[in-house]
């Protein structure tokens, strides 16, 4: 009779195989990176589809509950609203904004001359006429600033054109993703149930249940924050457009678009949007720029004290310190998108840490303070 003898070091074979694969992966990191981005390119339509379906899902649910419509009809209504919004943007808003940008670039030298003339005319009233060096410095600053601003805007226009070309090349992927999103919304319950079945089949029940509860909370936090912030910024942008039009401010639509978009960023966004608005207007008329500054400050106070809390409430449950920290880190790591999404991400981290700490304290029989 032969006895089963355990082969020495047999348990090291998987470790050696994994180490070898990791070594090969590190040596061929460029090939792996190319393969990864190629895979991401193939999956781009599905990313578009998921993002579109995720953003439209709350509106679809609201329409279903409010008007008691079936899924197919509610999806039809939602996509008709979306297509109408896109059509309005492409046919009316985009051409006007493009024209505003072109006019602004062309007229910057004239605006600079007007500002310099206004300064020279009123310099005596400011009691600065005797200080020739200061006057000359200010004139040089105005000339240099106009040149720099023209260069920045020209660069911005070129970047916008490049982005437009890239956007056009990805248009078919967006359309494909747009179509896929319809089926995602239609069969979302089926997808959710299949994912739950897979998780319960692979992992233990307690962990999966806790994960699903946490996932629902994260989804609710993100969707409420993103949709609420979008509605808030859309209203602020419209109010800004109406107010600036009544004030007969040039490039009102362009300024309102900047204010509306930057308003998506908590705390810093309104001030970021106010700076280009004032700079754009100051070359047209310093007095008009002052009116724009006062109006946008008033609009920000209205948003911060009334409109924002009314729409968003306390969706994220973060103090100003943590919000500013989230915006700083998010902006430093991922730019504007990071500044916007940093707040809900920080809220998720806060919830996770609170639960971990509570669980550890409970296991140690320590009462929470």
Essential attributes:
mainly alpha; 11 helices; transmembrane helix
Please give a structural write-up.
It is a single chain. With 369 residues, the protein is mostly helical. The chain contains eleven helices and no strands. The longest helix has 52 residues, at 71-122. It is a multi-pass membrane protein. Belongs to the autoinducer-2 exporter (AI-2E) (TC 2.A.86) family. Keywords: Cell membrane, Membrane, Transmembrane, Transmembrane helix, Transport.
Short description:
By secondary structure, this protein is mostly helical. It contains eleven helices and no strands.
* Structural Rg: 28 Å
Query: From N to C, what is the helix and strand string?
Result: HHHHHHHHHHH
Mean of pLDDT = 79
* Weakly predicted, low-confidence segments: none
> Number of helical runs?
11
> What structural class should be given to the helix and strand makeup?
mainly alpha
The main sheet comes to: none
Quantity of strands, as a count = 0
Shape: globular
Terminal Cα span? 67 Å
The helicity comes to over 70%
Strand proportion: under 5%
């Amino acid at each position: 009779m032969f006895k089963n003898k355990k082969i020495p070091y047999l348990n090291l074979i998987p470790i050696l195989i994994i180490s070898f694969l990791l070594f090969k992966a590190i040596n061929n990191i460029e090939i792996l990176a190319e393969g990864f981005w190629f895979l991401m390119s193939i999956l781009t339509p599905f990313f578009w589809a998921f993002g579109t379906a995720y953003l439209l899902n709350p509106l679809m649910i609201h329409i279903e509950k409010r008007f008691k419509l079936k899924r197919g009809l509610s999806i039809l209504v939602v996509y008709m609203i979306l297509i109408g919004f896109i059509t309005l943007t492409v046919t009316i808003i985009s051409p006007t904004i493009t024209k505003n940008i072109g006019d602004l670039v062309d007229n910057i030298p004239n605006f600079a001359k007007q500002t310099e003339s206004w300064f020279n005319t009123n310099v005596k009233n400011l009691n600065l006429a005797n200080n020739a060096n200061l006057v000359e410095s200010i004139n040089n600053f105005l000339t240099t600033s106009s040149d720099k601003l023209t260069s920045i805007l020209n660069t911005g226009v070129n970047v916008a054109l490049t982005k437009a070309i890239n956007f056009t090349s990805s248009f078919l992927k967006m359309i494909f993703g747009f179509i896929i999103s319809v089926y995602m919304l239609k069969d979302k319950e089926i997808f959710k149930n299949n994912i739950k079945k897979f998780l319960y089949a692979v992992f233990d029940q307690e962990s999966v249940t806790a994960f699903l509860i946490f996932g629902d909370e994260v989804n609710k936090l993100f969707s409420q924050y993103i949709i609420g912030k979008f509605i808030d910024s859309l209203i602020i942008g419209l109010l800004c457009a109406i107010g600036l039009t009544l004030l007969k401010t040039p490039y009102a639509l362009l300024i309102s678009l900047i204010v509306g978009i930057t308003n998506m960023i908590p705390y810093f966004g309104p001030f970021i949007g106010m700076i280009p608005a004032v700079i754009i207007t100051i070359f047209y008329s310093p007095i008009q720029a002052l009116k724009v500054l006062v109006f946008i400050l008033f609009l920000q106070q209205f948003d911060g004290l009334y409109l924002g809390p009314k729409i968003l409430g306390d969706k994220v449950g973060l103090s100003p310190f943590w919000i500013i920290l989230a915006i700083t880190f998010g902006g430093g790591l991922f730019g504007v998108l990071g500044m916007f999404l940093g707040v809900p991400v920080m809220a998720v981290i806060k919830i996770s840490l609170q639960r971990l700490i509570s669980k550890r304290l409970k296991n140690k029989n320590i009462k929470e303070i």
